[in-house]
Amino acid sequence: MKLKLAVRSGAIVPVLLMLPNVVWMLFYSLDAGAKSAVPPALSIAENVVRSVALALPFFYPLNLKRAWSLAVLGAMASALAIYYLAWGRFFLGGGSVALLSAPLLAIPSPLALAPVALLLLSSYLMNSWLMFGAALCFGVLHLWGLSLIAL
Predict the structure, then answer these.
(1) pLDDT tens digit string along 109-139?
(2) Half-sphere exposure of 28 (CA within 13 A, CB side)
(3) Which contiguous run of DSSP H or E holds residue 149?
(4) 30 in any annotated domain
(5) Three-state SS string across 3-39, please?
(6) 61: three-class secondary structure by DSSP
């Protein structure tokens, strides 16, 4: 019964999104002394909005009976597949940090764009403007932070 409840809720979205991150945290580490080019205020704002965008799906069901829901579900599966491909390339490439932001299938920064796309698309199936706003804010802050790192 609990598994059915979990599948009926949007909780599956952040769970699937975080699986490669958990593997990364368990088996890989970045240089502890590395300094970030992202201002602390931007980093804090991004992390707060990321937390909200990953927590909200636990409170909404995925409605697969809406118009276009199968198309949106297919787009979500594509975004997740691209995300997993990018993580797979990172893991199979020996954990090279350069692979974290390298283009994949002509998509620049797939590890940044794919989760944002997944969260934005999931807001449609959740019928939640709050989720859409959180995903949009996360996307803007995440991409802004990445652009500062690339400079």
Answers:
(1) 888 899 999 999 999 999 999 999 999 999 9
(2) 16
(3) helix 129-150
(4) no
(5) HHHHHHECCHHHHHHHHHHHHHHHHCCCCCCCCCCCC
(6) strand
Per-residue pLDDT tens digits for 30-87 = 654 456 677 888 888 888 999 999 999 999 998 888 889 899 999 999 999 999 999 9
50, two tokens: 């990321």
**Host domain of residue 88:** 10-22+40-150
Query: Residue 146 in contact with residue 109, Cβ under 8 Å?
Result: yes
Per the listing, tokens 């390298």 go with 102
Whether residue 93 lies inside any domain: the answer is: yes
For the chain, the residue count is 151
Structure tokens at 100: 């974290």
Q: 91 in helix, strand or coil?
A: helix
| Residue 144 in tokens | 């802004």
What's the structural domain count of the chain? 1
